[in-house]
Specification:
This protein is mainly β. The protein has one helix and 15 strands. 23% of the residues are buried.
């Protein structure tokens, strides 16, 4: 319940932002929620790879499109349950994933973007806090399939770093990676649309070679203002 209440605050802020942008700029604004049902795979060289049960990241998202082909994207997702592994141990209690980007559609079917990512994992039992953060560059492909439906694909490269903080100090290293998302967007009405896709995200420590990967189906419900 605490996680849901905490996530409601960004939702309310997004609604206020949408109204302000619409009033001042008259641009097309879409705001709503996203849900990523994902599984975490943690691979440590020389030790092995373990995968968690699926859990849900949930939260608000916003997209603003301007007449000059510029667009803005932002989302804030938080975990609704713990990531647990086959042997029953809780590796992570709370994940918060914030992403923002500004992009330009070179043609209606293809665009490029640059942004920033900040993903935080906290473990209550140990007090360990892991953060993956840094710039992002990428591209998006949109292929219309019908009047109210289109295929989309997103590919981003992460110039990220990994930082771990605990009672004994901390550890940092470069941890670049990439994300890939593919799916469909369907306009059910003029004001309401849904997205259905699959997303894969991974990053690997440049010194430790520890790799963390998240993958699973992603859904969205967006309302146009």
């Amino acid at each position: 319940m605490e996680r849901i209440l905490r996530g409601a605050i960004p939702v309310l802020l997004l609604v206020l932002v949408c109204g302000a942008v619409q009033a001042e700029a008259g641009e097309r604004v879409e705001a709503g929620i996203m849900m990523w049902i994902n599984q975490w795979t943690h691979d440590v060289p020389g030790v092995g790879s373990i995968s968690s049960d699926s859990t849900v990241l949930f939260g608000p998202a916003i997209e603003v499109k301007f007449p000059n082909h510029v667009f803005l994207d932002a989302s804030y997702l938080f975990s609704l349950s713990d990531y647990t592994f086959s042997y029953g141990a809780i590796y992570n209690d709370d994940r918060q994933d914030a992403n923002m980007a500004i992009g330009y559609m070179i043609v209606p079917e293809f665009g490029v973007l640059a942004g920033y990512k900040n993903s935080v994992n906290k473990t209550r039992e140990t007090g360990v806090k892991d953060t993956v953060y840094g710039p992002v560059v990428g591209m998006v492909v949109i292929a219309p399939m019908a009047v109210n439906a289109s295929f989309y694909s997103k590919l981003n490269y992460l110039f990220t770093r990994f930082k771990q903080q605990d009672a004994g100090g901390g550890f940092q290293e470069d941890s670049p990676g990439w994300t890939f998302e593919i799916g469909f967007k369907v306009g059910f009405t003029r004001e309401f649309s849904g997205t259905f896709g699959y997303k894969y995200e991974t990053n690997t420590g440049s010194n430790s070679n520890i790799q963390d990967s998240f993958s699973g189906f992603i859904f969205g419900a967006m309302f146009a203002f």
